[in-house]
Fold these 2 entries.
Entry 1:
Amino acid sequence: MGKIILKGLEETEEFGEKLGSLLKPGDIVSLIGDLGAGKTTLTKSIGKGLGIEDYITSPTFTLVNEYKGKYWVYHFDVYRLDNIEELDDLGFDEYFYSNGVSIIEWGDRIEKFLPKEKINIQIEKGKELDDRIVTIFGEGNRLEELVKELNIN
Ligand SMILES: Nc1ncnc2c1ncn2[C@@H]1O[C@H](COP(=O)(O)OP(=O)(O)OP(=O)(O)O)[C@@H](O)[C@H]1O
Ligand SMILES: [Mg+2]
């Protein structure tokens, strides 16, 4: 587990980009945080680090947007998911167990449908308006590896 305080939007963007550059095929990033905490903002930076040139927007009418950067990147937002069957219809397992990178806003809402080994990222507001506190936690080697590579503890 690791925790980092990001002072302002720029630091958050740098962090996201660094994280994105470290992600590998099959990684699953579950983003946890209140409305407006910065999940989409962070996703945009992660996407940049993954070499995505398209403008990333949160999927609203669909559950998932697909992008191609260094790898395929699947950006989910399950905030409006009111029926787990919607996920089934999507064939979500094929995304989560693919060679792409999955990023899931509100991942905690579908926690039990996500693989155990994943990278949970909690983002919360900090002291100053634009500060964010990011906590990374989860199970598996990839998490440990990333925490080391990101140099946070
Ligand atoms: N350090 C920061 N990190 C992230 N966002 C920040 C930061 N500082 C300010 N912001 C602003 O906070 C807002 C975060 O909105 P964003 O849509 O990313 O949140 P969200 O968690 O995805 O919300 P939602 O739950 O509605 O999807 C943006 O307007 C962004 O510019
Ligand atoms: Mg969002």
Entry 2:
Amino acid sequence: MQLNLLAIGDVVAESGLAYLTRSLRTIRREEQIDFVVCNGENASGVGITPQQAQDLLDCGVDVVTLGNHTWGKIRITDLLDESPYLLRPANFSRRVPGRGWGIYDGPGGLRIGVMNLIGRVSMDPNPDNPFTTADTILRKMQADVILVDFHAEATSEKLAMGWYLDGRVSAVWGTHTHVPTADARILPKGTGYITDLGMTGPADSVLGVQPQLSINRFLGGLPRRYQSAEGPCKIEGAVFTIDTQKKGCVQVRQRFWQEDGRKGSQP
Ligand SMILES: [Fe+2]
């Protein structure tokens, strides 16, 4: 049996959320997608509200993952405890609410495991070691397919995680930098991999933010509150095709959609 798993890059702002919620049913049908994981930690710019998380789940996302902005909208804490479909990084301290991994029902009775981890290079150094956390979770996770969203800044840390988990999980992808990398591949022991999926939000922006606000910061101007950019949105992600007999990934395809049709898909 082959499964198509769509991983969607960080949803940024209400406009990115709206474009995704309008588009995902069609994308699922056209791409014959069986399961969707989406990083949602920037749906509010910084953080995600319970309603935004519910909107993602209602539009066809199976599991929402988060990252360094998990607590940006602190009222998400109750839903993190209540919903198994909303994950925060598993290597956060045990003192915080929620969970970092889960096992979900896939087609044909398959058990699909999803793990959310956060990196420590050029980020908050306090989370537990994501590599050894993955080891601990994999010892407990009884699943037919295992997917890992590694929310991290450094390409080196993400690549190292891909190689570390090669052959032990079905796919590893990076999130957080909002810029897609051109390195989608299958690692030697069968794990599908990409360093960063990119983002889902305003196309004419600096990582989702109005360009002039970002430029002002780099010019050394007075600090101004970041605001999300306007204009057409894009969706960036990757489709991992998993062969459940071979227990590995047989194809990875980066996928892009844009609201005004300026950019097509990449094979
Ligand atoms: Fe992030």
